[in-house]
Amino acid sequence: MPKEFEVWAEKYRPKLIEDFIDQEHVKERIKLFLKEKNLPHLLFAGPPGTGKTTLAFIIARELYGENWKANVLQLNASDERGIDVIRGKVKEFARTKAVGDVPFKLIIMDEADAMTNEAQQALRRMMEDFSSVTRFILCCNYSSKIIEPIQSRCAVFRFRALPEKAQREFIDRIVKGEKLKISEDAINAIITISEGDLRKVANLLQAASAIAKGEITADDVYEAASLAKPKEIEEILNLALKGDVTSFQKARELLQKKILVEGLAGEDLIKEIYRQALKLDLPEDKKIELIEKIGEYEFRISEGGDPLIQLTALLAQISLLAKKK
């Protein structure tokens, strides 16, 4: 992700637990640990952009105050995931005492599910040996990739994709802070594209504001995200559904423009085709058949098929579907 697009995501990252958005089922339990100034090893699992790392840093600030950086080691396990890092950097930090009143240090490991099995085995032993002076917070997308001995040593918290209300709250926070003007359609577009990821919300909003001329519109959002506009995909599908050769050729030309001229990715196009297919005025049995075809061609593209050929073939299947009685 380009560095300049990380600014707002960091600027508006909550610093206090009161400002933490949603995830009430997690927040209330964490408050109990902070009240006692003690906590077990923690495992935060869930989709990206839902607040796992943010909450880890909030915990650090709440525990250590101004000295939090001296007592916290953060590692991105996807970059530093080998056994040498665990035996070296992590062990060296874990064995030293904390600065201040709290009797333990904190090690935050992002993307812990990317660690090798050997590194996880070494970490398991370390979590036992240094539990009196160190606590671990492991953040991951898939807890199933963390070995069972580590999971059993942690209090597991499962984060959910953020609902529309929480995303709107975060958008409103940025819009007010940056004094932006944004249309309701643009807000809906951001929510649709981000799929509950607040990091993506901030990045999209910043990118769209940079190219907008005045008020941020839905078109600005789709341009910033390099995604096809829903109306354009709807037009392509409706042309294909007419079932005649002329309409199919027009649909194919519009599709070629999206891929060859605008450089849109086949995976992104077929996702939008799926969204618009659900809204088409078709009998349910034909809609089911269409969704089955979309799934087949999405798989072909993911396996390395040429996006232009596969999506043109999908349009051909849609035209044939329209001809069936």
What's the helix and strand layout?
Blueprint: H1 7-11, H2 24-35, E1 41-45, H3 52-64, E2 72-76, H4 83-94, E3 105-110, H5 117-129, E4 134-140, H6 148-152, E5 154-158, H7 164-178, H8 184-194, H9 198-211, H10 218-225, H11 230-241, H12 245-261, H13 266-277, H14 284-302, H15 307-323
Parallel strand pairs: 1-4, 1-5, 2-3, 3-4
Structural write-up:
This protein is an alpha/beta fold. It has 3 domains: 23-158, Rossmann fold; 164-225, Orthogonal Bundle (Helicase, Ruva Protein, domain 3); 230-323, Zinc Finger, Delta Prime, domain 3 (Up-down Bundle), CATH 1.20.272.10. The protein has 15 helices and 5 strands. A 5-stranded parallel sheet has the order 2-3-4-1-5, with helices on both faces. The longest helix is centred in the last third of the chain and has 19 residues, at 284-302. It is elongated, with a radius of gyration of 24 Å. The two termini are 48 Å apart. Mean pLDDT is 86; it is low at 1-5.
What keywords describe this structure?
Zinc Finger, Delta Prime, domain 3, Helicase, Ruva Protein, domain 3, 325 residues, five-stranded parallel sheet, elongated, disordered N terminus, 15 helices, Rossmann fold, alpha/beta, 9% strand
Sequence of strands across the biggest β-sheet = 2-3-4-1-5
Topology-level CATH name of the largest domain: Rossmann fold
Can you tell me the overall shape?
Answer: elongated
How many extended strands?
A: 5
Uncertain segments are: 1-5
Largest sheet: 5 strands, parallel
Question: Structurally, how many domains make up the residues?
Answer: 3
- Element-by-element helix/strand order: HHEHEHEHEHEHHHHHHHHH
Give the termini distance in whole angstroms: 48 Å
Mean pLDDT: 86
